Amino acid sequence: MFQRLTQIPKTYPFLFGMSFSTIKTSTSDLLVQTVIEKRKFEEIDWKRNASFATFGMLYLGGVQYALYVPIMGRVFPNAAKFAAKSVAEKVKDAKGIAALAGQVILDQLIHHPLMYFPAFYITKEVVTSGGLRNADIMKALNTYKQNMSDDLLALWKIWIPSTILNFAFMPMWARIPWVASTSLIWTCILSGMRGGEVHVGDDLMGGAVTAASFKVAEEAYSYRTINSAEADPHLSHFVVNASGPDSTGLVSSLANSIAENGGSINRSKMVRLGGEFIMQLHVASEPEKAESMLRSLSHPSLNITTATLSPKDVRPSDSVSVKVQVVGLDQIGILARVAKLLASSGLNVEQLQTSVRESTKKERVFVVNVDSISRFSLTPKQIERLKESFENLRVDMVGVKKLDMRVTKRIEGEEEDPIGSKSNLVTRSTRR
User: Fold this and answer.
1) Would you state the pLDDT for residue 256?
2) What is the pLDDT of residues 241-276, one digit of tens each?
3) How far is 403 from 395, CA to CA, in rounded Å?
4) Looking at residue 113, what DSSP letter applies?
5) Is 110 helix (H, G, I), strand (E, B) or coil?
6) Higher model confidence: residue 133 or residue 237?
């Protein structure tokens, strides 16, 4: 029985490739919906899932199979024999290596830029716009045109090594399963790194390696926010608040004044609220240049105030960082409830942002993103109680669609295992 099952891919490579690609693409989308976007089972968009599954079946399992197997098999007739050779034999086969290079070039420089990405962007547009009738195909292609160079660079970082391994070692029947498996692994990695971060859901939709999804991966591992008032104590630090009637050039004027007088803008928030434009800047400079830099800050239509910043006391080495995102129907009291829970849990807000968005169903959605730090170290039991408090908040508040909490524990020495997660809460432990 087992031997018969293992013969299916070899006996029916086309049907196996289509089935494998369909399951893989459907699974990738379900990962994004459940892990990244934090949807419950009853909230899963099955039409969207079916659209991507169909794309996987027809394009990845059909078009891509035709290219990788019969077409490349004819253009490069010794491809299958080369894949079956040992590494020692491959190294000595100059014609086989040249054919391998030709297949990689055909796939990465012609197939993906001219066929795969246009098809993927069109499929994504159909899904996000609610159907083919509402889809703007030219918009999708123009988006790809704008992203093309970045998308291809991101693609090549993952797929050139994968494609070399695929064409060099995989038998012809296994080429499509290899591609599907690589794509699924990529989605799993991103889901694990960024689970619960709803704002990256669109970037990961469909499981493709694009510039947006690659950036998600880079940011997860490469960057963390620092407070330069604490990181650069040798500099003078100030907060600059400016507000006034909105007009063109306000940011340029203030930023140039700061730069020309030796100041550096580290963190900033700028927003137009109605007819008013509001800026809040964290500015640093050498102590001897600080006074002249502050005197240069003036604009006829801006009300500007400044204050000196000083570093806070160093946090305990085992304190925790808590990131919270709440997404729910716009209603009175969401931020108040979240802020009250943070305060009662001893969490100090480092950064908080709110916004109002309109969903595809024309619903007004309120989004809260908070970065906070504990004022004292927390034991695993206290962290579990904190998670339970946020879970209760999610259950109690009518209309809250998603609530994600990430816990990052600052530890000394080796990295700990992730702190256990509960319900819609995702937690992580990393070494800083």
Assistant:
1) 92
2) 999 999 999 999 999 999 999 999 988 889 888 899
3) 10
4) I
5) helix
6) 237
Contact assessment for residue 394 and residue 372, using Cβ atoms and an 8 Å cutoff: no
Burial of 102 (0-12, 13-18, 19+ CB in 10 A): middle
Taking a C-beta distance cutoff of 8 angstroms, is the pair 187, 26 a contact?
Answer: no
Count how many Cα atoms sit within 13 Å of the Cα of residue 410 in the half-sphere of its side chain. 16
Cα 237 to Cα 282: distance, rounded to the nearest angstrom? 7
What's the CA gap between 290 and 75, in Å, rounded?
A: 68
Is 50 exceeded by the pLDDT of residue 199?
no
Q: What is the pTM of this model?
A: 0.50
Residue 411 pLDDT > 50? no
User: Which residues, including other chains, have CB under 8 Å from residue 134's CB and lie 6 or more apart?
Assistant: none
SS3 letters across 119-168: HHHHHHHHHHCCCCCCCCHHHHHHHHHHHHHHHHHHHHHHHHHHHHHHHH
Tokens of 374: 């504990």
Query: Whole-number mean pLDDT of the chain?
Result: 79
Does the pLDDT at position 298 exceed 50?
yes
Determine how β-strand 400-409 pairs with β-strand 364-374: unpaired
Strand segments, DSSP code E, in 274-399 are 276-285, 303-309, 320-329, 347-358, 364-374
Position 431 scores a pLDDT of: 30
Q: Taking the C-alpha atoms of 115, 118, 121 and 125 in order, what is their torsion angle to the nearest 10 degrees?
A: -120
Query: How far is the CA of 271 from the CAs of 161, 243, 263, 274, 280, in angstroms?
Result: 43, 10, 22, 10, 9
**Rounded CA separation 373/347 (Å):** 5
Q: Residue 126 and residue 52: Cα distance in Å, rounded? A: 10
| Under 8 Å between Cβ of 397 and 366 | no
Helix, strand, coil % (nearest 5) of the chain?
Answer: 55, 20, 25
Residue 429: is its pLDDT beyond 70?
A: no
